[in-house]
Design a protein that fits this description.
The chain is built from 8 helices and 7 strands. The protein is of the alpha/beta class. The chain has one domain: Spore Coat Polysaccharide Biosynthesis Protein SpsA, Chain A (Alpha-Beta Complex), CATH 3.90.550. It is globular. It starts with a strand and ends with a helix. The relative contact order is 0.17.
């Protein structure tokens, strides 16, 4: 099976090289870094590490992910992936755990796998209190309204390519991860979670590192959950 990764990156010169280097190359066919209008050396570092680097000038986590999806959609049918793995470029996730993320899809015919930080081991300070509470609230609402059991909105996730296209992802900013999970519930995809390790990211978070980012992310997540009811 052809397996690829997509990672949005905005000013991640200190971390993106580690992410690309630690992704198991014997498992992954192509590593795509989407430069989201960075002003540092993210492009140069990612390119030197061996990644395919795309550029999306409109800022937004979701729009960067969509750029990666469109890149693969533009390829000939036979060259499109079977599985897409999303992983952040800040080195908070452990890329070497990627085989564990894709294993349920390969072995159990699962459609989507979420790497759950809630079930795994978190380094002290890796997640801010508002992150932990927001994840709990969002997953509780998904369980109440969609009858799907998740413990996290973790960005480290894998999904079958045909199922990803079926979801017709739209969100361009903070609602990307929850949109995928809500739509997976609506489409009755077979989903599971695996515990993953999580460490302090390199650099400052563009979301939880600011009051504005935290508020907007919380608003967008809640709005997305209720939008698709």
């Amino acid at each position: 099976m052809k397996i690829v990764t997509i990672s949005p990156a905005f000013n991640e010169e200190g971390s993106v090289g580690h992410v690309v280097n630690d992704i198991p190359k014997d498992v992954i066919d192509e590593v795509v870094i989407v430069n989201n209008n960075s002003t540092d050396n993210t492009v140069e570092v990612a390119t030197k590490a061996g990644a395919t680097v795309l550029t999306e000038t409109q800022k937004g986590y979701g729009i960067a992910c969509l750029k990666g999806i469109r890149y693969f959609e533009a390829k000939p049918k036979d060259d499109q992936p079977d599985i897409v793995v999303f992983i952040d470029a800040d080195y908070s996730d452990h890329p070497d755990e990627l085989p564990k993320i894709i294993a349920p899809i390969l072995n159990d015919d699962v459609d989507m796998v979420i790497g759950s930080r809630a079930l795994g081991v978190k380094e002290k300070g890796a997640m801010m209190p508002q992150q932990i509470f927001g994840n709990w609230l969002a997953t509780t609402l998904i369980r109440w309204f969609y009858n799907y059991e998740f413990t996290d909105l973790g960005p480290f996730r894998a999904i079958k390519w045909d199922k990803l296209q079926q979801l017709k992802m739209e969100d361009e900013t903070f609602g990307w991860t929850v949109e995928m999970q809500v739509k997976a519930a609506r489409h009755k995809l077979k989903c599971t979670e695996v515990p993953v390790k999580y460490r302090k990211r390199i650099g400052v978070s563009k979301v939880t590192g600011t009051i504005y980012g935290s508020v907007m992310a919380g608003y967008k997540i809640l709005w997305t959950i209720f939008r698709y009811l």
